[in-house]
Amino acid sequence: MKLYNVAVAGATGAVGEEMREVLEARDFPIANLKLLASSRSAGKKFSYKGEELVVEELTKDSFKDVDIALFSAGGSISKEFAPAAVEAGAVVVDNSSAFRMDENVPLVVPEVNPADVRKHNGIIANPNCTTIIMLVALKPLYDYSRIKRVVVSSYQSASGAGAKGMSELTDQMQAFAAGKELHVEHFAYQLLFNLIPHIDVFQDNGYTKEEMKMVHETRKIMGDMDITVSPTCVRVPVLRAHSEAINIETEKKITPEKARELFAGAPGLQVIDDPANKAYPMPLFAAGQDDCFVGRIREDLSLENGLNFWVVGDQIRKGAALNAVQIAEELVKG
């Protein structure tokens, strides 16, 4: 088996650390693993398959002999350093929004459009976490009957804001328990005991940038510029795993029974749908899991060809790190 030299840029962030864990858990064929981060994090040590690895400072010279570079260090870092990685001969899988809508960069969810990996010119983009989780569930339905319209409300965990977002929620819980003042820094408002219908910046059309990512990315990944998407993204006081209430309109009717059958046969998806026994997906159970989970599958009472369902997936894992590693796995299939 051929082995590859792999670099993780942003290796000390929540997603970067998860990438390292996923690479190890899935036994990715690695000859050498290089961990890269800012100068502040250089020198930190992590274990990989029993070997101690020292984090190196990310520079434009970091990618000599690197075959695959997994980036999760933010859009500005990707724009600055990804071209240097490509110039050095690496294929970049980028987890930021820097290249997602570039027409020359494939945007890939391996369960949905794996063949697009082959269209790369050195960079492959990892979609937004909320889009990934939604499309894993939409794909088997779309293949049975084209989806005309999607209305989605997301309930996004603190992990969507990275390690700092998770820490802020944890700190607020501890402060509340101790009767201390709750500090707000990374979210628009206190997240504990609250819901914030605001993720990323608002656009001129009244939607947030996060919501518009779901619109544009869905069309690109599905290869269907006519599919309509109406999203509302909400931050909720959950540490890990995003949840989404999804309503679709299809060209031909999909019954709940047929939907369960389609979901059950789809990769990366598990059905938990037994309301009589209180069995339905929840972030409590999805956190740390590779698969997404779907349930509450029911007919839309207001629309002839409408269907409602509920999807939950771990934002750090399938919504980011795992999806990136799966893209790398597609790359090395040969």
Automatic annotation (TrEMBL):
| Residues annotated as domain Semialdehyde dehydrogenase NAD-binding | 5-120
Q: CDD domains under this entry? A: ASADH_C_bac_euk_like, VcASADH2_like_N
Which pathway, metabolic or otherwise, does it act in? Answer: Amino-acid biosynthesis; L-methionine biosynthesis via de novo pathway; L-homoserine from L-aspartate: step 2/3; Amino-acid biosynthesis; L-threonine biosynthesis; L-threonine from L-aspartate: step 2/5; Amino-acid biosynthesis; L-lysine biosynthesis via DAP pathway; (S)-tetrahydrodipicolinate from L-aspartate: step 2/4
Q: What are the GO MF terms of this UniProt record?
A: aspartate-semialdehyde dehydrogenase activity; NAD binding; NADP binding; protein dimerization activity
EC number(s) stated in the UniProt entry for this protein: 1.2.1.11
Q: Does the keyword Lipid metabolism apply?
A: no
Top EC class, one word: oxidoreductase
Keyword Secreted found: no
Which residues are noted in the entry as substrate-binding?
156, 235
Which Gene3D superfamilies did the record assign? Dihydrodipicolinate Reductase, domain 2, NAD(P)-binding Rossmann-like Domain
Record's catalysed reaction(s): L-aspartate 4-semialdehyde + phosphate + NADP(+) = 4-phospho-L-aspartate + NADPH + H(+)
The cross-references to Pfam families, in alphabetical order and at most eight, read:
Semialdhyde_dh, Semialdhyde_dhC
NCBIfam families referenced in this protein's UniProt entry, alphabetically: asd_B (TIGR01296), PRK14874.1 (NF011456)
HAMAP family per UniProt: ASADH
Provide the assembly information.
Homodimer.
Q: What protein family is recorded?
A: Belongs to the aspartate-semialdehyde dehydrogenase family.
Indicate what this protein is called per its UniProt record.
Aspartate-semialdehyde dehydrogenase
Organism, scientific name: Candidatus Aquicultor primus
